[in-house]
Design a protein that fits this description.
The protein has 185 residues and is an alpha+beta fold. The chain has 6 helices and 8 strands; from the N terminus they run E-E-H-H-H-E-E-E-H-E-H-E-E-H. The relative contact order is 0.15.
Length: 185
């Protein structure tokens, strides 16, 4: 699966490459990324190289699948999205961020739909879940548009930037995905 590419109308997703580190470094330094993710802040230059290296290692062991998101229109690296399986339970957690210059273009929703398809069709998962900080409502809209169902507020679930934060949790089950994929009569 090392050469896997997921194709959408406005983007494609591929495994991270060493050359992506420079783009990751430039995009991940935005305050808004740090506010809504666990991306380090300030983002040190060596962190991007380490991120790419470790994600490539996890991919080679089938422990995580982190993709670079490439916007087709501009041919630019726009962000990352990953699927982190828990093999014994046939489920996985999604994590992602989109660089601020690419916000509002529908890239996160398209990428999440492609990742969900990959999880159910290729990895044969039963459940895919994702969460976002309560303050990041845009991420919640992405999950809703990708047909994930809201499940819970996990109160003070994360320690982030020196305070506890609530998380909103979403999921989609294989049966939901299959029902959505059935042809309409």
């Amino acid at each position: 699966m090392k050469d896997l590419v997921l194709q959408g109308e406005a983007l494609f997703m591929r495994p991270l490459e060493t050359r992506d580190a420079a783009d990751i470094l430039a995009l991940a330094r935005a305050k808004e990324i740090a506010d809504n993710t666990f991306v380090p802040s300030p983002y040190p230059p060596e962190a991007a190289d380490e991120f790419v290296r470790t994600r490539r290692e996890l991919w080679s062991k089938d422990e995580a699948y982190v993709f670079g998101i490439i916007e087709k229109r501009s041919d630019c690296f726009a962000g990352c999205m990953g699927l982190h399986p828990v093999q014994d339970h046939f489920r996985a957690e999604v994590g992602y961020w989109i660089g601020k210059p690419f916000w509002g273009r529908g890239l996160a929703t398209t990428a999440l739909r492609l990742l969900i398809e990959f999880g159910f069709e290729t990895l044969k998962l039963n459940r895919i879940e994702a969460g976002h900080f309560a303050s990041n409502t845009a991420s919640g809209r992405v999950m809703q548009k990708a047909n994930m169902s809201f499940e819970a507020v996990r109160r003070q679930a994360f320690w982030h930037r020196d305070r506890f934060k609530d998380a909103h949790w979403y999921a989609i089950l294989r049966e939901d995905y299959e029902r959505q994929c059935l042809p309409k009569k």
